[in-house]
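Reopening this ticket.

The earlier resolution said the output was attached, but the attachment link was broken on my side. Pasting everything inline this time so it's all in one place.
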Amino acid sequence: MNDDPQHGVPTGSFPEVVPVLTDGPVRLRAMSEEDLPALVEQSNDPDTVEWTSVPQPYDLGSAREFLAAHASGWSDPDGTLHWAIELLPRDGAPGYPFAGIIDLRPRAKGEAWQTGFVLHPAARGRGAMSGALRLAARWAFDHGAPSLYWWAARGNFASWRVAHACGFTHHGTLPSRVHHRDLGSSDAWVASLLPDQAMMPRRAWVEPTLIEAEGLRLRPIRDDDRAVAEPHDHPAHHMPAHGIPSPQTFQDWLLRRREGMSLGRSVNWCIADATSDDPLGEVLVFVRDGSLVEGGTAELGYALRPSARGRGVAGRAARLATEHALRPVAEGGLGLRRLVAETAADNEASNAVLAGVGFTVWGRESAADAPGGSARPALHWERLAAQ
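Inline output:
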């Protein structure tokens, strides 16, 4: 087995040309005929169908075509290099002879490589894919990759969790960048990893802590919480430009909330009635740039559906979120040093909420930017953690 002079990848006959890579319970190897029934199962899994471009319908004939492409990829200087993922038994957990596929797409010398992967549904939840990605990334860097890029359709949190766990840096969203089975194209997230970077999460993925008190339940926002998108009658300058969902924008609003938490920028709760679990609104702690960090500063926000007003819900929710945000990490909080908030000067209801939970005004603006391009007086508030 020799190395290709352009890419630095092995050359030789299949399957011997495919290097076997192992780390703990994860093993990368060449595919074989024995893997094809499991490949068919994987390719017909609903999540695989939704988030990949795998052909449909997919049968054993399709799987044999893929096996042939897998073999030829290792002999083509411009080919895609695939591995089968094998999950070995460990600590009483069963193994899976075929747990999925990972690939590398080498480019000309000096150009970024790319990676893609898909996991068999039976092997999910075991860390198999993050283990496979670390193995493939190390091999890529050992064979000349200057960087490794990951792409996925916006909203594919399962794939982003793998890249996030392996230390990839999220660079944002590109419009109409990847194929989408139903839409033709989809916006895409993009992230990268460099050879000298640790293959560990670069920022925390924030999960909302369940908080129950004062007749309220602060919990993660769910797909069925559409009631928070109840049409509202707030004056436009009282609300952030993209903070209040409508029935038409609820799905994108929810996606942006979850995206922010995956990047460590915010923690978002649904305000729910503790008895009925009826969604009443949202409360959040967030930063506009960077990520939430212990000892740092973040902003408090909240909004109620109109039918939930008049019961003190906003004040109670703001108090619970504030106390959690300023509580030390050792005591289960976020460990922030300072919370801030901004309100329209004439938003008496919101101003009363902040004053009621211990915020004080530290600044005033006579012509702050407001939604719709207007300029309005605004107040700036803060509350510090107990010393």
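Reporter confirms the inline version is readable. Residues 211-384 form a domain with the Aminopeptidase fold (CATH 3.40.630.30). Residues 89 and 95 are 4 Å apart (CA to CA).
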